[in-house]
């Protein structure tokens, strides 16, 4: 399901402004005033917190990990909804293994998703009600890793105690910029649209 901004306006205009606290965590797909964040805020009609960090992964890495982002989040008011991504940098750090989709790549993805599962459990214990976990889109040479990773994320969401939904991107042709990884402005909007579709289909407050 795809929609234009005008259709999106109709969809959320009929719904009262959410009073829920929504927080985005993850990596550069969301970080740094991400256009994904901007589109979601426009459609939601209110500010959405964003603490994603460029270079973050689910494993510990050269910068703060995604679990560490969440751990440092002020939970005096517990978020109702977390929008997250995670796993992309874990795959990129093993790119040659993941291009051949060898056992080292599968282990890397399995470990990353296991860390993500533990994070979902912590969110549930903290009182977070909903999670939308954005999956992977296809990048040349990493299509099999995207399939394997998204399926593992789907399994993690399906078995989690928390209400968790995957924003599956694999059917989208995401236009990408100079580095061949990060989307163009149009591509970021497509990511936001898919997250919004998941929100609408599953009645997730944002």
TrEMBL record:
SUPFAM superfamilies the record matches: SGNH hydrolase
Please state the span of the N-terminal signal peptide per the UniProt entry.
1-20
Q: Which InterPro entries match?
A: GDSL, SGNH_hydro_sf
Asked if Signal is a keyword of the record, the answer is: yes
Keyword annotations for this protein, in alphabetical order, are: Signal
Q: Is Cell inner membrane there in the keyword field?
A: no
Tell me one GO molecular function of this protein: hydrolase activity, acting on ester bonds
- Report the protein name in the record: SGNH hydrolase-type esterase domain-containing protein
Q: Lineage of this protein's species?
A: Eukaryota, Sar, Stramenopiles, Ochrophyta, Eustigmatophyceae
